[in-house]
Amino acid sequence: MAEREPQDYQYASESLDQFATYEDYLDSQLSETDLFYLEDEELARQLVELGYRGSGETLRRDDFEARKRAERERNAQKTSAPKPLASAGKDLSQYPFLAALASREDLVRNGKLTVRGALCGEL
After folding, report:
1. C-alpha to C-alpha distance for 90 and 99, rounded to whole angstroms
2. Is 14 exposed, middle or buried (0-12, 13-18, 19+ CB in 10 A)?
3. Structural domain contains residue 38
4. Do 17 and 72 lie in a common domain?
5. Which of 40, 87, 113, 118 has its CB surrounded by the most CB atoms within 10 Å?
6. Number of domains in the chain
7. Which pLDDT tens digit goes with each residue over 12-57?
8. Where are the stretches annotated Disordered (predicted)?
9. pLDDT tens digit string along 51-97?
10. For residues 27 and 19, what is the distance between their CA atoms, to the nearest angstrom?
């Protein structure tokens, strides 16, 4: 049997951020009926982890941790990488209105200034 990559599993397209722990992830694959008949939450989790119960293929603990870590790093990069200003490097000297907007762009992006404008004209 070929070894599978973590992204091949059921939650590959879903975010694991919704699960604080591996146990929460396992619990998400259990139904009320499972818990009713098994009467032991830990046993039910073990069955899901072994692949005997649950929906789809289950991530192993180390794959779950690796995916969580990768998601945290990806989210950290998104928040720490500032987007360049749209007006950066553009010569707007011929366009006074655009130059005025460009001078306010950074403040607007950071929420320190709100710009309301209406563009009127005939089409």
Report:
1. 9
2. exposed
3. yes
4. yes
5. 87
6. 2
7. 446 788 888 999 999 888 889 888 988 899 998 998 888 887 667 7
8. 61-89
9. 887 667 788 899 999 999 998 888 887 776 677 888 888 899 999 98
10. 10
Look at residue 3 and tell me whether its pLDDT is greater than 50.
no
Q: Are residues 26 and 69 in the same domain?
A: yes
Do 104 and 57 share a domain, yes or no? no
Could you identify the residue written with the tokens 């499972």?
34
Instruction: Yes or no: say if 55 and 29 are a contact pair by the CB < 8 Å rule.
Output: yes
Neighbour tally for 26: CB within 10 Å? 24
Same domain, 31 and 46: yes
Both tokens assigned to 21: 């722990």
Asked if 103 and 109 touch (Cβ cutoff 8 Å), the reply is no
- Where in the sequence is the domain holding 35, given as residue range(s)? 6-80
